[in-house]
């Protein structure tokens, strides 16, 4: 299918089914978090074991997403999507019927192997189907999947766990997965170009050790501490392997993951801002549940409902932001969105033990509104500068960096919170009057109060750190330049280039 015909009439029906597949796969990633205590009880496993249902899922994604650039170039989008959806459906069905924890863990790994390719594939199809000047609106709609699915996961799972078994979570996802698979078999068309490239086994090994090691090391650092040999050992192995991967890819004619795309300044800048912002964004995703449930004692269901308006607003804003991006570019949206994000993150650094439920909901909702104006416009602006042949590498790189930066952000913020909590607890304990803890009951009450106050201090300080991280993203946003197609900027028009049988024109960055 020729690209100019695609641009005249994008395949909306096909993109819709890809959206549903990506939505259920991302929803599934956060759906199980609230159910972990129930699974621990049923299978009689410890927290260190049950957390692998989440950590293992993330690791498989971290290993397979870098390889997605190869898969997207080597195989048709139809065969790739059907394979991914089949694996995801089999994993979902197996998880629903799992008789033991081992089977459930294996089912989650199978699910992850399918879902890992979904997001890069969907993004690549959209970059192929839409011209540069219309990608903002398209990628804004794509933000619905990327943002809303993980946001509604805890709310939905909280309600299900209160009324039904954890297996119902998989039963809800299964019909959507089966429908998407069947529809794709009969209706999906091939629109992405293929290249007859070979998979380099050493690149796969280095990628798996590199990104897998970094993800595991950083994701367990918050729980095990940085002094744990397993933490710094896996991070060191991961870092060395990633360096080896980069060197190998730069010396290959057909690399598995093209690192030369960072020579495009707007893509490099957008990746940097996305990494910084993802680290800051995780403050809300990690610290808020701790504050709401542990310190304030609010139920998981109510804590999920607290975050729901923000998710809904973010979903509403995504297509709107996309259209604004097409009209005004990324820089203006990013600066406005980051200003809101900085202000609301700073507000969260001033939480107290009696901050009202409504106030927390309002600040969180406004914060999500600000972030909705930043992530997709910046990412889209960076991808717009890449030649079409590098789109699979751009989408794979973005998704990989988000996974790794998310793990780094989690580890960083949890470490900051724990260190501050311990310091504050020591200060408060030293200031306690011995006469005030004369009885066992009084001592228990004082200890509980110290724990809450010190943990609150840790959370507030972590939000303050997140504020400064967001300020860094704000500063970087001033350097964003709008990427135009040569047809919309005739003075810089370049001759068409033929890549893999498809005529393309290089995008150029100009002042916004």
UniProtKB/TrEMBL annotation:
Highest taxon listed in the record's lineage: Bacteria
UniProt cross-references to SUPFAM superfamilies, sorted A to Z: MFS general substrate transporter (SSF103473)
CDD domains: MFS_LmrB_MDR_like
Keywords, alphabetical: Cell membrane, Membrane, Transmembrane, Transmembrane helix, Transport
Membrane topology type: Multi-pass membrane protein
Sequence ranges assigned to domain Major facilitator superfamily (MFS) profile in this UniProt record: 14-485
Ranges in a coiled coil: none
InterPro entries the UniProt entry points to: EmrB-like (IPR004638), MFS (IPR011701), MFS_dom (IPR020846), MFS_trans_sf (IPR036259)
Bias (Basic and acidic residues): 491-500
Region Disordered, residue ranges: 487-512
Gene Ontology cellular component list: plasma membrane
Residues spanning the membrane: 12-32, 52-72, 79-98, 110-130, 142-161, 167-186, 198-218, 230-247, 267-292, 304-325, 332-349, 361-379, 461-480
Localization, UniProt: Cell membrane
Gene Ontology molecular function, alphabetical: transmembrane transporter activity
PANTHER family referenced in this protein's UniProt entry, alphabetically: MAJOR FACILITATOR SUPERFAMILY MULTIDRUG TRANSPORTER MFSC
Family to which the UniProt record says this protein belongs: Belongs to the major facilitator superfamily. EmrB family.
Name assigned to this protein: Multidrug resistance protein B
Organism: Oceanobacillus picturae
Lineage: Bacteria, Bacillati, Bacillota, Bacilli, Bacillales
